[in-house]
Amino acid sequence: MLDHGERRRFIRMEARCKMRCRIPQSDEEFTATCHNLSGAGVMFTTDRPVEVGKALEIRIEPESAVTPPLEAFVEVLRVEKRDGEYAVAAEIKGIKG
């Protein structure tokens, strides 16, 4: 059932899968775990700090081969350190492809 108190434009879907992050104009890449995804954003955890405002290129790899990977450009909105890792909320700015 939908919570009418929820003010988000898009519903978040649980999406526990691996993802890769790359800093544009750089060879720097790191891995992360996607936790949820919506039409507007993504929440993931990683073992390295990420700066708020940083632009990233991401590739989310679904566990099923039937679903193609999602490649997108995102901007980091929020970072929280939790249990030795970083929870990152990012806004999707564009879909690659």
Automatic annotation (TrEMBL):
<dbReference type="GO" id="GO:0035438">
    <property type="term" value="F:cyclic-di-GMP binding"/>
</dbReference>
<feature type="domain" description="PilZ">
    <location>
        <begin position="6"/>
        <end position="87"/>
    </location>
</feature>
<protein>
    <recommendedName>
        <fullName>PilZ domain-containing protein</fullName>
    </recommendedName>
</protein>
<dbReference type="InterPro" id="IPR009875">
    <property type="entry name" value="PilZ_domain"/>
</dbReference>
<dbReference type="Pfam" id="PF07238">
    <property type="entry name" value="PilZ"/>
</dbReference>
